[in-house]
Amino acid sequence: MDDRSGIRLNRRTFVGASLALGGAVASAPGVAGCEGAEHGHDESQTAVVRVQINGQRREFTVDNRMSLLDMLRERAGLPGTKKGCDQGACGACTVLVNDRRINSCLTLAVMHDGARVTTIEGVAGDHGLHPLQQAFIDEDAFQCGYCTPGQIVSGIGCIAEGHAREPAEIRQWMSGNLCRCGAYTNIVRAVAKAAGTR
Ligand code: FES
Ligand code: FES
């Protein structure tokens, strides 16, 4: 690529020059978010997220690109929510946000400022296990257990949505949660038991 002054630019040098120009603009007086940019500490790339996790108010300063899953596991110290695929295909990372189940690997932490988040660590009550946790034990609904936190949180959501009236419906509405061990039959039985539909 040639410019008019005759300086030869290939794609790499052109991108580098563009970034340098961007840095110069960002360093200009009155341009927000410039401090520390040269040193990789651009505060414009971080945000404060205030959330209520399992009933506790928490606050984190996170990189804008951090997923909710990574914030829970790496910043909040809650590793119960599992990272299976990290791309929305397995459901191992399922949590409840404002009582709705979502794949926490597919959503940015900064999108949930002010939200209520429930993870597997928060589903048991003061008097013992959540009924669905107990049903998983009673029905032998897991083998390796890796998918189990996501299955249980998703099952709680499935029941709350009214999608656990019969086995076929449970299978459909739990289909986003994969179990590589193939414990599906017992998982469906456990969800139905907790829902009181069997
Ligand atoms: Fe999120 Fe698999 S880890 S869907
Ligand atoms: Fe092993 Fe679900 S119990 S993947």
UniProtKB/TrEMBL annotation:
Cite the entry's keywords alphabetically.
2Fe-2S, Iron, Iron-sulfur, Metal-binding, Oxidoreductase
One Pfam family, short name? Fer2
For molecular function, the Gene Ontology terms on record are: 2 iron, 2 sulfur cluster binding; metal ion binding; oxidoreductase activity
Q: Does the keyword Transit peptide apply?
A: no
Ranges for the 2Fe-2S ferredoxin-type domain? 47-123
Among CDD domains, the record links this protein to: fer2
Pathway of this protein?
A: Alkaloid degradation; nicotine degradation
The record ties this protein, via PANTHER family, to: OXIDOREDUCTASE WITH IRON-SULFUR SUBUNIT, OXIDOREDUCTASE, IRON-SULPHUR BINDING SUBUNIT-RELATED-RELATED
What is this protein's name? Twin-arginine translocation pathway signal protein
Provide the species name: Mycobacterium alsense
